Amino acid sequence: MNVMEESGLLVEKLEETLKHIKKLSMRTYLKFLPKIELHAHLNGSLNDKILKELGCEEDSIMQYKKLTQSIDKSDNTLQECFDVFKIAQNATKTQESVYLATKSVIEDFVRDGVVYLELRTTPRSEINMSKEEYIESVIRGIESLSGSKEKIFVKLILSIDRRHDKKTSEESLKIILKMREKYPNIIKGIDFSGNPNAGEFDAALFEEARKNGLKTSIHCAEIQNDDETKRILEFGPDRIGHATYLHPLYGGSQENWDLYCKKKIPVECCLTSNVVCGTSQSFPEHHIQEWINGSLPFSINTDDKGVFSTSLSREYQLVQRHFKLTGSNLWQISYDAIDYSFASAKEKEKMQYYLLQWLYLCHDMIYKKVDPNIDDDFCEGIADGFWNKLHMLEQQ
Ligand SMILES: [Zn+2]
């Protein structure tokens, strides 16, 4: 099927879907909007259903989601946030469970209207699974659902854990590079993540990764640490995650901010994650507004949609609501994120064309039905059904 046929199908399906609908919520519009997710950790993105299928007890599932119960008070600590990831790790200790978990996460993103996804995960070994086998299992999940015949492209970023010592990190990099040779179209980048209170950024290690053709996305300034933030900015990754304490109004140093403004590195913003973990005070006080006001490069992301009970359309809605953005502003944010992605030039072109087609053919059709007074979840199922149907048609 060529792109024009695809666009025709899109309009046809959309007309049919919207025929009897008079009004839509903003949230439903945002589910229809094709979106780009650049910052999603596999183990933090599992939904309740898959956790249950993988044998997780009800108590542990409650624990996995408990952080979001105190979102308004935001009295969680980063340590508590990192502790809950162990629950998902305990549920994915075999190759089959890693494969099923990966598939389930991708399916969730498809239902939410995500057309391009970069998943990230730290390779780990278990009693019956080596780090290579762990990576292979994730890739098997990705290969079963991603590609030009599907409605989503999925790429993989492999992470170096901040808690690991130099030797372990170097060994991890070796494995990552070896696996990348085997799967160059899927493994695209390397990340530095984990509890920001542990370890420190090793520029030489990431320089080695970069020399070998990996893109770099580094969690940066999640806590106040001007010294490390400076070293990360000087290294100049392709993207940085969070950047919470970078702007001087949010606890960063003027020196680092000046350096950032020179480099203009795209930031992966994750609103719910920051507010739930207490590193941002509230949604209206989130640092994303400095990027919006200053026309600096950023994307909107979920971080851990399972742990934080969120979705990418919900994150878009938070930005829309708290910073008064229009439908076309949100479309532009999604469109710009394509450029910041680690997709190939050809894939970027295809996605940009798809989003432009969507803007010309579908945007107005949906947006004119949006009524700001309607409940958030009203009609959300319509968009779910739309993406599911389109997905199935594409596979025929
Ligand atoms: Zn993250």
From TrEMBL:
Organism (species): Phaedon cochleariae (Mustard beetle)
The UniProt record lists the keyword Zinc: yes
GO biological process, one term: inosine biosynthetic process
Cofactor(s) named in the record: Zn(2+)
Lineage top rank: taxon: Eukaryota
Catalytic activity: N(6)-methyl-AMP + H2O + H(+) = IMP + methylamine
Database matches in Pfam families: A_deaminase (PF00962)
Keywords: Hydrolase, Metal-binding, Nucleotide metabolism, Zinc
Protein name: Adenosine deaminase domain-containing protein
Family from the record: Belongs to the metallo-dependent hydrolases superfamily. Adenosine and AMP deaminases family.
GO molecular function: adenosine deaminase activity; metal ion binding
Family annotation (SUPFAM superfamilies): Metallo-dependent hydrolases
Limits of the Adenosine deaminase domain: 34-352
